[in-house]
Design goal:
Elements: H1 3-7, H2 14-21, E1 28-29, E2 51-56, H3 63-70, H4 73-78, E3 82-87, H5 91-99, E4 105-108, H6 110-119, E5 125-134, E6 136-140, E7 155-158, H7 164-175, E8 190-193, H8 199-205, E9 210-214, H9 217-223, E10 227-231, E11 242-249, H10 250-255, H11 257-276, H12 278-293, H13 299-307, E12 309-311, H14 320-329, H15 345-353
Parallel strand pairs: 2-3, 2-4, 7-8, 7-9
Antiparallel strand pairs: 1-3, 4-11, 5-11, 5-12, 6-9, 6-10
């Protein structure tokens, strides 16, 4: 199976995402429970700026943001400039907030980032860093599906028509030689679009035979007796594919580059802290989830989900153009001009200061 074709699936959903989720409201405020994220008394503001507004999802694939917020690592770098947080449940609603200047910097998936960039003709957002790779699996009922070929003829859930995992599964099915109508989900495999919150119950009831889903939904299914049949990481070169990026309003980057650098420095230091303190980081992320989402994840879900997600400073830009081309071939996206979607200058400046290697924009950097 050609790895390049699988790589191409990740962003094929762009217009559909906007249609399906564009009506979502902005995020909710992310409150501070333990004081670690509070501005230190007497701390100096960066360039006199009172605050920077940061958005992310209460999801383990946004681990850098969860841990950085919980442990006060962003606020430490920002000094007297307050980090104000907002959480979102969908990428397009975060893009709306960015466009409306309700947030300045955000953690977000690749599909909405590309969609937001193309819809604004490349004038509003830019990707300024990576954050996470991996965390997507095909989990099945082992009594009904014992091998990959057994997936044919079965009912497989994906989170939403046209979302990143939906397109990845459709692409994988096509590579098996199976015919599936993307819109209806009917064909050699039945694709059942099911909200991640509902998927475990659908699995328990027997209305689906498996699901191609991100964490922690995948581990929730395993806790219900499901079996991991395929880890999407195994389909990618070096087993890496972007699941979360860091974006910024271009205007904010131009006006407050030192603030952006401070947030990126916080992200780099957070990723380093996660690598050195995996158990403490996992606990911090779960504590943040408790605050942001209302409840923490149980250990049987948290532990395997955490292991399958890798935090990274690298946006893994080399796959982006190819993925967009696949979206074009699938008829889901007009040929985009992605030149300029990345501005990795601030991140590479931070990485150099931290003694880390620079990351590459794969020719898609600022013009």
């Amino acid at each position: 199976m050609p790895a390049s074709r699988t790589r191409l699936a990740a962003l094929a959903a762009l217009p559909l995402l906007a249609l399906a989720l564009g009506a979502c409201g902005y995020g909710s405020d992310s409150s501070d429970e333990d004081g670690k994220s509070k501005v230190a008394e007497g701390a100096k503001k960066i360039d006199g700026l009172d605050s920077v507004k940061i958005g992310y999802f209460p999801n383990l694939t946004h681990a850098t943001a969860l841990v950085g917020n919980q442990e006060g690592l962003f606020q430490k770098e920002l000094g007297g400039t307050e980090a104000k947080y907002a959480t979102f449940n969908a990428g397009p609603s975060e893009i709306e907030a960015l466009n409306a200047k309700s947030i300045d910097i955000g953690w977000i998936g690749p599909s909405p980032a590309i969609n937001g960039y193309t819809k604004s003709q490349g004038k509003n957002l830019q990707i300024i860093g990576g954050s996470a790779s991996g965390g997507v699996k095909l989990v099945v009922n082992p009594e009904k599906i014992k091998s990959l070929k057994d997936v044919k003829g079965k009912k497989i859930a994906t989170p939403q028509l046209g979302n990143t995992q939906d397109v990845a599964f459709l692409n994988w099915a096509a590579e098996q030689g199976w015919d599936v109508d993307a819109q209806s989900g009917k064909g050699d495999v039945s694709v059942v679009r099911t909200d991640n919150k509902i998927t475990p119950d659908a699995y328990k009831s027997g209305s689906i035979d498996g699901a191609w889903v991100p964490e922690p939904t995948a581990s929730k299914l395993v806790a219900e007796g499901g079996k991991v049949l395929l880890d999407e990481s195994d389909l990618w070169p070096d087993k890496k594919f972007v699941i979360t990026n860091i974006i910024v309003r271009q205007e904010f980057l131009k006006e407050h580059p030192k603030v952006v650098e401070a947030v990126l420095r916080g992200a780099v230091k957070t990723n380093a802290w996660i690598a050195k303190n995996p158990e403490k980081a996992k606990a911090a992320a779960n504590e943040r989830l408790k605050t942001d989402a209302g409840k923490p994840l149980p250990a049987e879900v948290l532990d395997p989900a955490w292991k399958s997600i890798q935090t990274t400073n690298d946006p893994l830009a080399a796959t982006l153009d190819a993925e967009a081309d696949h979206a074009v071939k699938a008829g889901l996206l007009k040929k985009p001009d992605l030149k300029g979607i990345y501005d990795l200058g601030p991140l590479n400046k931070v990485l150099k200061a931290e003694g880390e290697s620079p990351v590459d924009d794969a020719g898609l950097g600022v013009k």
